[in-house]
Specification:
Length: 132
């Protein structure tokens, strides 16, 4: 398994927008697009120093059934809902809130909380008691 490390890079806004557009076209992450660009640049300069493209960056595999179509449908729905008037979005949010309250009225749920240490539990309990 290849060890991965996080790198912070500051880029001009137009490059970030271009990377985001390319990532959406390919249905990949921005990190993948930037890593591919860096690999291509390194291969141009010195093919011996570039890592093999298949192993350099990996992402979780997409589901075999209609993953691209599902992602496209979600983006289209998000765009359609963002185009709605503010009043309609507010009405829908209030309706969802009402449905959520109805679902919670069915009865209390049991929750299991696990702590790594007694100190973590103590801090959690203290915050619950004083409402912080």
């Amino acid at each position: 398994m290849t060890l991965k490390r996080r790198v912070t890079v500051t880029l001009p806004p137009h490059l970030i927008l271009a990377a985001d557009r390319r990532a959406e076209e390919l249905d990949r992450s921005r990190s993948w697009v930037v890593a591919e660009a860096l690999r291509a640049h390194l291969r141009q300069d010195d093919p011996a120093t570039a890592s093999p493209p298949a192993r350099a960056v990996t992402e979780a595999p997409l589901a075999a059934y209609a993953a691209a179509e599902l992602a496209k449908a979600r983006r289209e729905r998000l765009r359609a809902e963002a185009a709605l008037p503010t009043e309609e979005r507010l009405r829908r949010a209030e309706e969802l809130g009402h449905l959520a309250r109805q679902a919670q009225a069915r009865g209390p749920r049991r929750v299991i909380i696990i702590f790594d240490s007694y100190e973590d539990f103590y801090e959690w309990r203290k915050s619950r008691l004083i409402g912080a």
